[in-house]
Amino acid sequence: MTGRRERVTAEKALQFVVSDANVLINFAHIGRMDLFGGLPGYRFLVPDHVLAEIAWQDQADQVEAALNAGYLTQTAITDLAEMLTYADLRRSLGQGEAACLAIADHRGFLVASDETRAFRREAVARIGEERLLTTPDLIIRAIRAGLTTVEEVDAWIVTLAEKRFQMKFTTFRDLV
């Protein structure tokens, strides 16, 4: 009986995070898709709409491998209310962003996205800033969980900048 109770409690303690393509692609660039499976307390979901946005084969292969390894879980919009919200959001957002936000809004999940402007404004209005995670936020959590080091992630700043993802700082040392 104790094992079942512990399993249920552990499942309730999980925070579900719906990830947008830009975050997945950033972790593919640094070759650390495993971090999605290693971050304690989080379970990462990827909507079908997001998978459709990943155009580069090497990135799609890494996401597929992460799905197969259980680091990520594929999900879909099946609820009518989510579908209506998705349709409304598609007027101003891309398909992946709209899917993430619709799912997070209706299911009470967090969203991992580096999108700014219209997406960020809409996300803050619908789910609140406290439910938004960015690539740097996830990296900080990985450092704190002991899954990587500041030295390793500081090298990622350069790698990601070469791939057109700029961070507003030069070291994670001051953030952890």
What can you tell me about this protein's structure?
This protein has 176 residues and is α/β, with parallel strands linked by helices. It has a single domain, classed as 3-Layer(aba) Sandwich (Rossmann fold). Helix content is 57%, strand content 11%. The protein contains ten helices and five strands; from the N terminus they run αβααβααβααβαβαα. Strands 3-2-1-4-5 form a five-stranded parallel sheet. Helix 2 packs across helix 5, helix 6 crosses helix 7 and helix 7 packs parallel to helix 8.
List the helices and strands and how they pair.
Layout: H1 2-13, E1 15-19, H2 21-29, H3 35-38, E2 42-47, H4 48-53, H5 57-69, E3 72-75, H6 80-89, H7 95-107, E4 110-112, H8 117-127, E5 132-133, H9 135-144, H10 150-162
Parallel strand pairs: 1-2, 1-4, 2-3, 4-5
Helix pairs in contact: 2-5, 6-7, 7-8
